[in-house]
Predict the 3D structure of the following.
Amino acid sequence: MTVPPTEVVATIAEAGSPVLRVTTVSERRPWLRRVTTPGDARLGPWRFQANHDVVDWTAYNRLAACLYLVLGNDGRVRYVGKTTARLRTRWPIAPAVDAETGQQLSNQLFHTCWEAMEAERAQSPALGFEVRAITEPELAQVILALGGEVGHLASAAKLAEDVESWILLRAPPPWNKVRRRRAARSTPRPA
């Protein structure tokens, strides 16, 4: 029996462990990330600052490949990504400065989906988000149990990357717009 792609995503999200919670995102003075590359799009300026909690510091700092998903507190998956290093490299709590004065601010949580988070948050101010992660060994067990079209990926050498690509082609979360094209070029086909 083939499991619908949206159910695959929901099952993986449920199996993932909560790592970060963005409890509130409030509009404050515009801020900039401190980046070293001129023209880096992650610089900003950004309108919102997140009140967040790292709920699992071990998972946040773990050196291991994993798939991560951003869920709204309404249960919908907004974004899927992967890392082959540490989750903290994808979701850094990094130095920031006031966009107008250049004054140092407290470190800010950031991710490349920040622009989409800001846009959705502006429309739904009560919405909170959770970042969940699932390591490759755990992910292999989940997709083996699901079987069907996604099950063949369980033995992939780059499991998190291959499952991310599979999801982006079949059930892309709304914040993954740009990354869909890249997935179409790199997803392995079943033998």
Observations:
- The chain has eight helices and seven strands.
- The first strand starts at residue 17 and ends at 33.
- Confidence is low (pLDDT under 50) at residues 179-187.
